[in-house]
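Data availability (excerpt). The following record was deposited with the supplementary files.
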Amino acid sequence: MATPVEEKTVAAPPVAPAGPVAARTWPWRAPVTVLLALVLPVVVLLQGPSRPVDVALVLQLVLCAYTGARLSGVVGSASVSPLQGMFWLFCYTAMGIAPLAQQVVGRTPIPVTGSPDDIVYAILLTLLGCLAFDVGTHLHSGKGTARTVDGAQAPRRPLVDIPRSRTIALTALALVGTAAFVGTLGVAAFFSSREAIGEGFAAAGLASDSRAGTATLRAFGTVPVLLAFLLLSRRLVIDPRTRRRPAFVLAWAATLAAQVVVNNPISNARFWFVTVALSTLLVLFPRRVGVFRALLLVGVVASLVLLPVADRFRLQGGQPTFERTSTVETLALKDYDQMNMMSNTVTFVREGPGHTWGEQAAGTLLFWVPRSMWESKPSDTGTTVGLYIGTENVNLSEPLWAELWIDFGLVGMLLGFVLVGYLLRRGDHWYAGAVDRGRLVTTTGMIAIPVLAGYEAILLRGSLLQATGRVSVMVLCFVLLSAWTRRRGVPENPDPASLALARQRRLP
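Predicted structure:
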């Protein structure tokens, strides 16, 4: 039986309780709240012809105001909360402002085949899910990560640093996976278009009817190298000795070059490139509340203005799908089909087979089971609904609200978002405390939380089956970095002598 890896841990000096980083109240919080929750929705509302006020429009404005206020709360907070920040950023832009623009323009990127009541119900489900998420965040008290020892605050548990052997193993795995990926498709494909990547898979005989299978193959070439790059980058930031080691710097340069090839915005979906960029900034500036605020505010502008026109390299029939039009019309007609798919899912359940009661979730969790062994394996939820409404393009989103509702009904959806809210709040609280205490430590969570925050938009956008490929590879890499380790450091109730001895330990 394998012997657990013993590793060194670094105990930080006594600090304030983990959680929000001490800071004064942000003076711009109130103006930003007014801007996001009131001004911007009204500006969008005035961009189109006047329309009668109905229940759908009122609920959409309420959703914009609520998500805008909650996003402003995260922006104005004294702590860095990447998981909650990305949740409210997605809700505000993709589920709030973009659907409002669609109602104003009177056009949608995909057909909405149901009745007006289905649209109202879809907006109401989204609003209830956001409220349930807030309930879940309040269930986490934020206590229990620090305790008083001899009158000072000290961490309950030591932060376990990722061993050097694990760093080497992940870097080697990443470079091998990237080399195999690039060798299969050729370097030129990665600087051509996303369509060229798909054609490369087909030419190599790796394409299949399952997009999840192809995504998993692609994930092995893109995810490990991102994690290795983030891990090596943090080592360079926190430990000056690593900058004087040629082998370490060379490994970091190799992962950077690999990032440029396989994770560039030309050959990747925009949401994945957002994951790469956001996680990199959060790893390089983990304690900068100002940087985090700027990321969220810039994210609003980028989501509403830049993201809808950033598909210049997605080719259809050899021509870029880039057109010049008004900002509101572009926002309404481009990729924000999440609320449309919410409505279509309501129609599908009402007119079709009804709720699936866990069948779609089972297909997502067991995505790795070949269809030859499971003939009745459910298809991607977005594809299933797309085929039902008769769209030509069935590569559609299926937001998390719809995924939970179609499988578990209203009660199951609400409970699901309560759990999501609790977990994201817990993750943010741990991350803030770990970053504040771990000045000389790199834990798995310090890398995982920024990556998951960036990838959160893909998970919320859906469908879940399409997102499982990269998620599964992420989990495998996190296990490689953190499993089978033995904690050794400050005991649960340290005495001053033990605490002083622990402070003297440093990275090997």
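Summary of structural features: The first helix runs from residue 29 to 45.
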